[in-house]
Structure to design on (268 residues):
């Protein structure tokens, strides 16, 4: 079992997978969303940990259990009814629907995008009483649950990676983050070349600067830092409109995210 730090706003999540590479990538991603994340290799070991950890959500890799999704879900539902996300190797939709009928809250087919998983975890925990905050930085408004961004009241459409970068910068506002740090925080590991960070930061800047002055600054020889425009209040939005934004998170997944290769976990 791996143990992680505590996030101020996140939920307690237990990741269950015998695939160490995949599990660590998921752990990195969810911790960057301020969740308190633990991981273990099997449901057998997870069951013993439940009374101690009291997780608010489970993510289980059904493939590593060596059985179909239905038996895994059945075993879990005998013990607990907390939200459950199943990672499935099944290629047929009907096979994945079996797990949903058995009691899973979400079933994600492999390969998948880490940012999509994080969004679904946030949405599920929000429904169950652990919400992700709307972050307001000057004229910038980031709604992590709805996966939306506004600048001076204008919607800014971002890709999954651009959103993950911006969310990471917002949690470390005014701090200088190196390119290697960003590779680890956003992609979950540092095996890529740092020019991957440069490309995505450049694209993110262009979109944000279409509605206001530069807020992501280059610190020469060190990395990047988010420095919000001081003294600028975000444009007021009706409560109903903001609630509507929150409800769109899952609806956008099928079109907004590109698949992730199984072993490289490369988000493009």
């Amino acid at each position: 079992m791996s143990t992680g730090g505590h996030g101020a706003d996140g939920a307690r999540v237990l990741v269950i997978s015998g695939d160490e590479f995949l599990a660590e990538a998921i752990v990195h991603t969810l911790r960057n969303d301020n969740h308190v994340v633990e991981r273990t290799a099997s449901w057998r070991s997870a069951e013993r940990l439940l009374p101690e950890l009291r997780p608010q959500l489970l993510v289980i890799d059904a493939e590593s259990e060596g059985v179909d999704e239905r038996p895994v879900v059945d075993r879990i539902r005998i013990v607990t009814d907390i939200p459950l996300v199943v990672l499935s190797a099944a290629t047929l939709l009907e096979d994945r629907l079996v797990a949903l009928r058995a009691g899973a809250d979400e079933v994600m087919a492999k390969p998948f995008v880490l940012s999509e998983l994080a969004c679904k975890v946030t949405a599920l925990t929000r429904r169950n009483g652990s919400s992700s905050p709307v972050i307001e930085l000057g004229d910038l408004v980031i709604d992590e649950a709805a996966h939306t961004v506004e600048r001076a009241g204008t919607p800014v459409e971002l890709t999954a990676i651009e959103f993950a970068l911006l969310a990471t910068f917002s949690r470390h506002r005014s701090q200088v983050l190196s390119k290697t740090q960003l590779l680890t925080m956003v992609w979950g590991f540092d095996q890529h070349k740092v020019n991957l960070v440069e490309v995505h930061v450049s694209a993110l800047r262009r979109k944000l600067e279409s509605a206001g002055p530069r807020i992501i600054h280059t610190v020469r020889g060190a990395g990047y830092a988010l420095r919000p425009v001081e003294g600028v209040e975000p444009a007021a939005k009706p409560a109903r409109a903001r609630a509507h934004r929150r409800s769109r998170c899952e609806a956008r997944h099928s079109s907004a995210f590109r698949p992730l290769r199984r072993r490289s976990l490369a988000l493009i």
About this structure: The domain at 134-251 is CATH 1.10.10.10 (Arc Repressor Mutant, subunit A). The CA atoms of residues 11 and 35 lie 5 Å apart. The first strand starts at residue 12 and ends at 16. Confidence is low (pLDDT under 50) at residues 2-8, 236-268.
